[in-house]
Amino acid sequence: MNIIVRVKKQILKFSMIPKDSRVLAAVSGGADSMAMLHCLRRLEKAIGFRLGVAHIDHGLRQTSPRDLKFVESQCQELGIPFHFAKVSVRTESKKRNKGIEETARILRYDALEKIAADNGYVRIATAHTASDQAETVLMRVISGAGSRGLRGILPIREGMVIRPMLSVTRSEIEAFIVRENIPFTTDETNMDTAYDRNRIRHVLIPLIEKEFNKSLVPALTRLAENMRMENEFLASCAEKASKLSVLEAGENRIAVDLVKFNRIDDSIKSRILSSALERFEKPPRISQVHLDSMIELCGKKSGSKSLDIPGGIRVSVGYDRLIIERKNRKQRTPSGQKHAVHVTGPGRHEIPWAGAIFHFEPEDNVQGIELHIDKKTYGYPFIIRPQKPGDRVAPPFAPHTRKLKKIFIDRKIPRETRVTLPVLCHGDMVIWAPGVRPVSRDFTKKKMIRVVIILPASFALQTDDRG
Question: How high is the pLDDT of residue 428?
Fold first, then answer.
């Protein structure tokens, strides 16, 4: 099948380009990107989009000025808008403590996205080929990636970056370049086996093709496609399971209901944890090994109940909760800095440091944890505050005098949760706290103050409290 036809089929199959939109092609000047440029140029009218080109200078090679001039001149010849950006990979690599290849990739995409945003492009096309796909999958097999990693290079990345050449091999591109007499530049670093990808490309793949499977590239691309489709299905299953088991998923903290989580199949558990970690302010780069360790921790009956994973993340199990959080994150405000709320009459009171809401004498349709207080014995004002060391609950709000801390322990409320729980007081007496069940009393409705308390879902407490 003609390469241009294959590229068109790939674009239409994945709905890569909205009609009448602008597409920015990332062109280095090499054979792959020049082939993509000419394919997209010939498909502009047929598919209905406008093409532009971006060239990124990584500052790694002495021949970079030559490549810049070449790509710019080709764009002028074809009448295509040209954009350029330069990034400092070596400098940023040292600053970020990341490898050259990874830093180059991050900076390249950042630069492309900025050019696109500044100039009204809605898609960025990169020239990843089927051969690149095979190399990526093989690299991930070697590193022990899970099924998500074996998807390889996705046809569409984050809705913005498209890969229209992903069904075409490098050898097919080379034949297309010769047949169509398309000029291109040669990147000498592509032969440098100091880079992992180049060793895979020039050493490992030829060896496997010679000794084991001459059709290795098609086999690995089929594997990636199968993994992509299976992962789409499993991702939908994980999303449903996540809604039931994940209690809190913030920028620096995740709380999971361990009882519900442990009932889920391990393949879904990995996706739930991975997706939750992606919501972190700075998502950590973790492998399937780390996910497996987290899942194993969840099922432990004894031994260590915590572990550390890359990115300064601490994973711990307490009672029936799995907590994943950054060790150096800003902790919740200490108790002494949480302002007590004074309640002098009916109304709605928000408790910001607890994420809770207290309704005093609300309308009947307000639902939550209910408390009924005898007006004659304990009337307004009330105080809502954090717990204090030594807090006790006394009759008639408990069968007998008990330490609040002991009640929290009995109810298996994790320590990190306790410090953010609000308690309702009358003077120095604790009237209600999560886990406290006031003793039922035969009061008439007219003599009662009805209080409805709404706690955040992350507390997930079994507080069927009625008074």
Answer: 81
Nearest to 132 by CA among 275, 231, 35, 61: 35
- The β-bridge partners of 374 are 448
> Do residues 302 and 353 both lie within one domain?
no
pLDDT tens digits, residue range 251-287? 788 889 888 999 998 879 988 998 888 888 778 888 8
Domain closes at, from 212, 243, 272: 212
Flag whether 16 is in a domain: yes
pTM above 0.90, yes or no: no
Q: Do 230 and 375 have their domain in common?
A: no
DSSP string, 390-437: T-EE-TTSSSS-EEHHHHHHHTT--HHHHTT-EEEEETTEEEE-TT--
- Pair (104, 204) in one structural domain: yes
Total residue length of the chain: 467
Q: 149 lies in a domain?
A: no
Which helix (DSSP H) or strand (DSSP E) does residue 15 occupy? none
pLDDT of residue 457: 62
Q: What is the pLDDT of residue 75?
A: 97
Alpha-carbon distance of 64 to 58, in angstroms, equals: 8
Number of domains in the chain: 3
Q: What's CA 177's distance to the chain center, in Å?
A: 39
Answer positive or negative: Cα dihedral of 164, 166, 169, 174. positive
CA distance 438 to 422: 16
How does the average pLDDT of the chain come out, rounded? Answer: 86
Query: How does pLDDT run across 332-390, given as a tens digit for each residue?
Result: 444 445 788 999 889 999 888 888 899 998 888 888 888 888 887 788 899 999 888 88
Q: Does the residue 156 lie in any domain?
A: no
Q: Which domain holds residue 189?
A: 3-128+163-212
Q: Which 3 state secondary structure label does DSSP give 101?
A: helix
